[in-house]
Amino acid sequence: MFELKFDANICLSCGNCDCLTRCQYMDIDRETAKTEITKIASGEDSFVLHDCVTCYACEEYCPMGNHPFYLIVERQEELDIPPLPKPLIERGIQTGIPFRGEPEIFEAKEPALCMGVFSDLMYLIQGKLFDEFSVISEDPRKMFHYFCQLMYLHYARTSVIKERLPGIIETIAKHGAREIVFFHDECYGTYDSYCSAVGIEVPFKPVHLFEYLYNKLNELRDEIQPLNMKVAYQRPCSSRLSPDKHHFVRDIFDLIGAQSVDREYVDETALCCGGTIQGQRREGSRLRSADVQERNIEDMVNAGTEVCVFNCPACYNTMAGMVSRRGIRPVYMSDLCRLAIGEEPAGWR
Amino acid sequence: MSSVYESLVEIVGGEHVSTQAEELYIYSFDLGTTEPHRPDYAVAPRTTEEIQEILRLANREKVPVAPLGGGLSLAGLALPLKGGISLDLKRMDTILEVNEKSRYVVVECGVSQGQLTSYLERHHPTLMHSEPGAPPMATIAGNMAIHGQGDLAHPYGFNSDMVNGLEVVLPTGEVCRFGSCSVSTQWYTNHPLPDVGLFLGWAGTTGIITRVSMKLFPHKSIVGAGQFVVKDENLIPEIIHKITHTEMVHDLVAYSQAIPPFSSGLHHLTINLSADSEKELAFKMELIFDDTLGHYIRSGDGGYLGFNRGLQRPQVSKTSDWRKGGGFEYVGSIMPVETYPDCYRRGREISEKHGIPYTVLGRVIGMSHAMMFSWTYAFNRADPETMDQAREALHETDDLVLELDGAIWKPGTYGQKLVMERMDPNTLNLMKKVKQLLDPNGIMNPGNWEVS
Amino acid sequence: MTLAEYKYADTIHRCFRCGYCKFPVNWMDVNNCPAYARFRMETYSCGGRLWLTKAWLSNEIDWSEHLAQILYSCTACKNCEEKCPLRFNVDIFNMIQAARAEMVERGLVPAAVKEFLENVQRHGNPYGNAREGRGEWSQETGIEQYQGQDYLYYVGCVGSYDTRAQQTARTLGKVLLRSGVSFGVLGSEENCDGNEVNALGEETLFEMLAEENVRKFKDLGVTNIVTLSPHSYNAFKNDYAKYDGSFPVLHYTQLLRDLITDGKLDVSGGMNARVTYHDPCFLGRWNGEYDAPRQVLSAIPGIELVEMEKNRESTLCCGGGGGNFYTDFLGGSENSPARIRVREAATTGASVLAVACPNCMTMLEDAVKAEGLEDKLVVKDVSEIVGEVCGIG
């Protein structure tokens, strides 16, 4: 079975314990952090395992790349400290079961793009930026065959991820593309970060959507009409697995003339959309989630945000209505890019 | 040409009566599993007066009349089981009056649920009616005639409890009005006059409802649905009890189904809330999801899945395509809420025995006074074997309802027979006398509720 | 053909007859299927037609003139496809078209359909008028014969022969001339585009027309086409590719919009009128173009554009599609879709009912007369409104 590459000694010799001291949802000093991460590393119970909101951020905060977040969720599972009530976990696990027949395996020409479980969002990949793509997983009935499974980190069920992921990778690989742009950065994080952390082999090279968009927009530079909009980016949890790609957000904004607002919860201090937090088992989770959302959106409003830019469909589903009620237009990054080259994206209408 | 046909043409005009094979074919089908029954005439009247004349003619000539609204009962209730006239009432589709202050609407019998929903949204946005889960073609009056329920069943009960007045054409052709409209120009109440209640729940066997006054209710500006999930079906009755105790919820439904897999073996509660301000909504959400359900969340037995604003309009017809086959039928029942666990377990067994993915749902009626529990069986209309399977499962489920001390809602002929076998003999005898009194020639929707 | 041989044998039974197909988006009435609105019998609803088709192909019922009329009463408006919540909705009209094709194959079409098809075959138009007269509408307009100009202005049968629609064809031509567009027409060389022939299920004749037209367009070196009728636009855009004819095609409202945007067409003269716009099915539901005509109208100073309650995806068809402007299976009643539609237009308080299709023009103008609304409501094509603004009669 696949094992997490985690080195307890790295934590023992770590001076800062950024993983826990920088956590935005628990107030932990350096000393406590050291004690708790050591306990977690050695398989003992810790309040951290009970209070973690599974925002993924510690995976980015750890300067040593020692995968503290993957460790926390593995330990939650081992010690039976589920972050969510059991019916939600069972529901989540069952959600990923394909039930409408086998996928059609075709030879994907490059460049290829994989929609993962977001085949319903094909309207987001139209126009010049996407028309060359051979699209994998465009049929919503078959999309669970392409489900990266990483959502189960929120469920503390890495066992499910490890069990299912090799089959998913095999299905994607059958399409034959060597390089695949992933529509969602959770998929990218799966194949780039998680698989290497647990030793699952990936026979294709994942490409981050924003890296692709940035490069493609550069090709179409002449067609860009600066948007002159004040934008805030709702950074998803999965983005913490690919911090090296996060700069493309600003790079794209710069390229298309979108002005990134000056705000408190941004980049490494970005706040979770609250979608996962609201259902957690810990007392007061729904109100905690509402508080996080309120602070997040208030911050956007105070910074003069006109458009809230999304990467993750789950964040969008959770927050689009909320931001629009505060006068901020919700839009996916792909649609924003299409707008910049004079197209009229469906999602924008 | 028969004299009946000629008379019908004289009454409704040639375009609205047909004896041609095409109309007789289409009007011989129900959308469920009931075998087709061919009418001799398909007739679509426009006025109460036309209906009076048709019934006088039918009574004189002893021609059966099967009134048809949206045709969505699925239980064969609007089929001309003994031939005669299939009376399509959908041309009678005028919304006659909305009284905002007294919160009621008067409609002709062919007005569809969708039409009323839309009318209120556009012209009286602070009012709503209790809209059933059926497709929007279902008619207001048809739903009354079968004791339907809608999305306000929890606070306000059956739709037939919301009647403020009726206009009915008797099988012998007379028009009767019931409720305040019988003594005044207003249709604001069904009380306090002597209650004759002979038309609701009778599935058109005692007369044809031509006009209905129905209560309307406050429609708040924010509406949405919260979802709560549990694994243990035994928890559902107590959770329903607790939620209904808050008196804060608009609609409360529990469901479980095999497909899609996420819901298999789990029970989802859909909890509709409405509010006129963020403050009101926040208060209600806290009361329901934190104060009332928090205990289940902390114990790990129940999960809050979130709250989505806006309500999806009924999409029940998608069920018909589960087997890529254009059909489904369900047994609906009115059950005590505490039977939910048995209803689920036993229904699931029946489905699995017949190789049909199980689908069950319970909608709370009143303050947990009852629930409408349904077991749905999809079939493929092109595959007679799947229709037989569904039919058998439906009959077994009818049996189950009575075994669990429930009452079958809008039963087809099989279920009607079961109910009448169990019914108090004096009641049955009274039904028989009423029927003989109102419909001496037995022309109204014969084959249904026939007391032997 | 048996049911098993029918192209949609695996699909046709999937219609549940739930009735969403009768509604507009907002559910305000059940009259958005034109045939059902006209007759209000279940047989004439979309579900009724599908069930009857299956019954006929599986020999549960025999063919009859009445059955054929029911199938041909469908105007191909696609309201059902927009509203049906099930996955097979994209094939609903295809199922009707395939059943009609079988009727054509067996020689079992209604007399009016037969006449329509024979006229197109013999004379290149459904009216049975002489081919030579096809270009007469453009006499003394200064509109040139096509000889390699930037655009082929394709007029279509209705615009070429119907007296009222000819006015529209002329006005549009003059507007294009005024805008300096390089274009020409085929005149008596123009042939039927075949859109209705295809909808009526005469596949062989459609194939012939498409091949001939493609050959002609290629021989003449046609590069771009602009059409008067959304029906022609639809055929060229969506069906001719199969016959090796992928020509860039615009509906004229798209071209006018571009000309106004580019400053080549000056509409600043304005017009003081309250206008409501009726979406043609073959421009709207078939091709998703709802905006161009509205953009043209909105660009004209003084026009107050008001929407009917049923607009865009919810538009009630004029009842003329699928050949019904000629076969007239939906005519003769106050419940004829065109009459319902002009009553809806009148309730907006608009004095002008704008159309962008010659079929809609003829259907709705007749309906205005039948409803006695001549004093309140005038039907004008978008091109005619633009023409008036530009001082072109």
Topology:
The complex is a heterotrimer of chains A (349), B (452) and C (393).
Chain A: H1 8-12, H2 18-21, H3 30-41, H4 47-51, H5 57-61, H6 68-78, H7 86-95, E1 112-114, E2 134-136, H8 158-174, E3 179-182, H9 185-198, E4 205-208, H10 209-219, E5 229-234, H11 247-256, E6 258-260, H12 285-302, E7 307-310, H13 313-325, E8 329-332, H14 333-340
Parallel strand pairs in A: 1-2, 1-3, 3-4, 5-6, 5-7, 7-8
Helix pairs in contact in A: 10-11
Chain B: H1 3-12, E1 17-18, H2 21-26, E2 41-43, H3 48-61, E3 65-68, E4 85-88, E5 95-99, E6 104-108, H4 113-123, E7 127-128, H5 140-145, H6 153-156, E8 163-169, E9 175-179, E10 208-215, E11 217-218, E12 222-230, H7 236-246, E13 251-257, E14 267-275, H8 278-292, H9 294-298, E15 302-309, E16 326-335, H10 340-353, E17 359-365, E18 370-380, H11 384-403, E19 407-409, H12 413-422, H13 425-438
Parallel strand pairs in B: 2-4, 3-4
Antiparallel strand pairs in B: 1-2, 5-6, 6-10, 7-11, 8-9, 8-10, 12-14, 12-15, 13-14, 13-17, 16-18, 16-19, 17-18
Chain C: H1 34-39, H2 46-57, H3 65-72, H4 79-83, H5 92-105, H6 111-123, E1 151-154, H7 156-161, H8 163-178, E2 183-184, H9 195-199, H10 203-219, E3 224-227, H11 230-239, E4 249-251, H12 252-261, E5 273-277, H13 291-298, E6 303-306, H14 324-327, H15 337-346, E7 352-355, H16 358-370, E8 378-381, H17 382-389
Parallel strand pairs in C: 1-2, 1-3, 3-4, 5-6, 5-7, 7-8
What does this molecule look like?
- The complex is a heterotrimer of chains A (349), B (452) and C (393).
- By secondary structure, chain A is of the alpha/beta class.
- Chain A has 14 helices and eight strands.
- In chain A, the strands form two sheets. Chain A has a four-stranded parallel β-sheet with strand order 2-1-3-4. In chain A, strands 6-5-7-8 form a four-stranded parallel β-sheet, with helices on both faces.
- The radius of gyration of chain A is 20 Å and the shape is globular.
- Chain B is an alpha+beta fold and 452 residues long.
- Chain B folds into four domains: 3-88, Uridine Diphospho-n-acetylenolpyruvylglucosamine Reductase, domain 2 (2-Layer Sandwich); 95-218, Uridine Diphospho-n-acetylenolpyruvylglucosamine Reductase, domain 3; 222-309, Alpha-Beta Plaits; 316-405, 3-Layer(aba) Sandwich (Vanillyl-alcohol Oxidase, Chain A, domain 3), CATH 3.40.462.10.
- In chain B, 31% of the residues lie in helices and 25% in strands.
- In chain B, a hairpin with a 4-residue loop joins strand 5 and strand 6 (104-108).
- Chain C is α/β, with parallel strands linked by helices.
- Chain C folds into three domains: 3-109, no CATH class; 117-257, Rossmann fold, CATH 3.40.50; 267-389, Rossmann fold, CATH 3.40.50.
- Chain C contains 17 helices and eight strands.
- Chain C has helices at residues 34-39, 46-57, 65-72, 79-83, 92-105, 111-123, 156-161, 163-178, 195-199, 203-219, 230-239, 252-261, 291-298, 324-327, 337-346, 358-370, 382-389, and strands at residues 151-154, 183-184, 224-227, 249-251, 273-277, 303-306, 352-355, 378-381.
- In chain C, the strands form two sheets. In chain C, strands 2-1-3-4 form a four-stranded parallel β-sheet, with helices on both faces. Chain C has a four-stranded parallel β-sheet with strand order 6-5-7-8, sandwiched between helices.
- In chain C, strand 7 (352-355), helix 16 and strand 8 (378-381) form a beta-alpha-beta unit.
- Chain C starts with 33 loop residues before the first helix and ends with a helix.
- Classes of the chains: A alpha/beta (349), B alpha+beta (452), C alpha/beta (393).
- The interface between B and C is large, with 46 and 38 residues.
